[in-house]
Amino acid sequence: MTTTFVLVAGGYTGGWLWRDVAAGLRAAGADVHAVTLTGLGDRRHLAGPGVDLETHIADLTQLIDHIDAPEVVLVGYCYGIYPSVGAADRRTERVARLVYLDSPMPQDGLSMIDQVREQMPEGPARDRTLRQQERAEDGWRIPAPTRAELQAFGNLAGVPEEALDRLVRLVSPAPAGPYAQRLRISEAVAALPTTGVFCTTGGTMDIAALEALVASGLPLVQHLADPRATFFELATGHWPMLSAPGELTDVLLRAAAGEGQRLTV
After folding, report:
1. For residues 191 and 56, what is the distance between their CA atoms, to the nearest angstrom?
2. Residue among 153, 162, 144 nearest 243 (CA)
3. How far is Cα 229 from Cα 258, in angstroms, rounded to an integer?
4. What does DSSP assign to residue 183?
5. Could you read off the pLDDT of 115-125 as tens digits, one per residue?
6. Cα–Cα distance for residue pair 107/177, rounded to 1 Å
7. Phi, psi for 260 (deg, rounded to 5)
8. What confidence category does residue 248 fall into, taking pLDDT thresholds of 50, 70 and 90?
9. Rounded-to-integer distance, Cα 33 and Cα 53, Å
């Protein structure tokens, strides 16, 4: 049976970010839908003060509803995990596996900004994220990052110059609403088969650190000890679809097959 992937990028980007990975997945026989959320990428003309997280969740649920496949592997990267989790909660019967690609673990009742404030280590990247709303033009439009900002805050380890040039050319402004709106999900998401992919160069989390959190008894992560939860590490920076597209393609195919390391706690 053909595996169907839905790839959801983070802020300022769009479906174009997955070009090489999507090509690799299709070459392996998969069906691929690389999503551009409302207000981003080539849909930036649809941005406005009313665009919020629920808008992006609706983007994904509508797409899933119109995909002619019984189930999808839903891959959320960075901010993209928030609408992915929201859509997975509303369409649990259609999600074969939820993949967290170098992303946080969204929680019910918290926005992305809330989680950054509460959980992200102190540093320039955290400070810049928390100032997003202040930088927003007209109160809702966050300017696209410049090359210098990407190099300073983006953890571009391993990204070739040509890919960086394309990233700088195609990043778009982002509506502020999705980052500030609190996510509402049920416990059904925690029951889905999941895969976590950690980018370990310059990252703050890996499999060993996650095992320690589970062993500590932290309630939020206890479901990750389930044998249906698998994990991978990529020795690259925060943009694996640009820095290691071949390796990421292989990881996504293996994740869809239920492969990966399982926690030993």
Report:
1. 22
2. 162
3. 8
4. P
5. 999 988 888 88
6. 17
7. 125, 170
8. very high
9. 20
